[in-house]
Structures are given as structure tokens and as C-alpha cells.
Prior knowledge:
By secondary structure, the protein is mostly helical. It has helices at 4-7, 16-24, 29-39, 42-64, 91-142. 69% of the residues lie in helices and 0% in strands. α2 (16-24) packs antiparallel against α3 (29-39). Keywords: Membrane, Transmembrane, Transmembrane helix. The chain crosses the membrane at residues 116-140.
Amino acid sequence: MRDLYQRLSLSSKASEQEIQHAVTGCQNSALRQDAETVLTVNVHRDTYDTLHHTLSDIGCLRARLGLTHGAHWQGDVANDFSMPPDNAISRHDELVDRVSSAVSLYNRWRRWRGPWLLIAMFATGAGIGIVIGFALRLGLAAG
Length: 143
């Protein structure tokens, strides 16, 4: 299906006068005939606009997935609703990266937790022992 708006250099919100002017100025007879049939009849245009919106959404989805037509289709009617591939990182990939980073930090903490916990327990026990020792020594020296 042709993107008549793109082929006639029109906006999908073009007025009837703009459409009529573009159709009469069109050099391609087949395109002119399609545009007259579809865009100048209100019922046909409403149906076409619904389909145009759906195909544009599919083109956006294909671009988001990195799907484009091969080089031999680039100038063809089949490529009217295609868009260049979107190479931006997807929200899913961003979330996977964040979760992977959090898991990596957690695993690192678990790996080092055992030795540090043992050291902390030893230091706490030694500190309590020293405090009790001083208290006993002071208690014996005072008594």
C-alpha cells in the first residue's frame, strides 16, 4: 500500500483544498488516480486514515525492533511505512542491565561477607574482653 500523504508531500491533517491542490499537481497518473479515489472522498479518507495510522504504528514497531527492508526494497512502495532502525537501548535492556549490576554487587558482598563477619565478631569479642578485663582490674584495685 502506498503512503499517499508521503507520496504527495502532505500532512495527514491536510485540508481538502491542500489535498485537491496536491492531487491536481501530481505528475504520476496512477498515484493521482489513487489519491483522487481515496483522499477526496470523506468516507474513503477516514478508512484510509485509520489504516494509515495502524501501518505507521507497525513501521515504528519494526524500527524499534531493528527490522527494515532490504536494499532492493528501499525505493519501492513496500517501504513507504518503514523507518530507519532505532538503535536506542530499549527499556527492557536498560532494566536487565540494572538488575545484572545489582546482582553482581550482591554476589560480591556475599563473597566477602564471611571473612568480614568473622573479623567483626573477633574484634567485638576482643573489645568486650578488654572492657571486662579493665573493669575487673579496676574493681580489684579499688577493693
